[in-house]
Design a protein that fits this description.
7-stranded mixed beta sheet; mainly beta; 11 strands; globular; 4-stranded antiparallel beta sheet; about 0% helix
């Protein structure tokens, strides 16, 4: 079955960096685009970044452009989200998403940006 397992979240000070990872299994990873979403308390889940199956095409939410970078390693079935210059408003649970035959989500990883 499709499984997505996120890791790499934590507590970081404003201006700091984190790298999130999402390990995928149960489907042919290299065939599918992948995305990162986030959900802050009291807010709707929002798209943060997406990457095409081959990794050549990416897209970002305006709020993270220039600070976050999505990438993937198809040999490792893993998608990453490098987050730099973190702000308190980046605090959220971050989820990995794959649109295979249905929409699949990981369990999420908490990112807290606070001094």
């Amino acid at each position: 079955q499709v499984q997505l397992v996120e890791s790499g979240g934590g507590l970081v000070q404003p201006g700091g960096s984190l790298r999130l990872s999402c390990a995928a299994s149960g489907f042919t990873f290299r065939y599918y685009a992948m995305s990162w979403y986030r959900q802050a308390p009291g807010k709707e889940r929002e798209l943060v970044a997406g990457i095409s199956s081959g990794g050549r095409s990416t897209n970002y939410a305006d709020s993270v452009k220039g600070r976050f970078t999505i990438s993937r390693d198809n040999a490792k079935n893993t998608v990453y989200l490098q987050m730099n210059s973190l702000k308190p408003e980046d605090t959220a649970v971050y989820y990995c998403n794959a649109e295979v035959y249905s929409s699949f989500w990981g369990q999420g990883t908490q990112v807290t940006v606070s001094s």
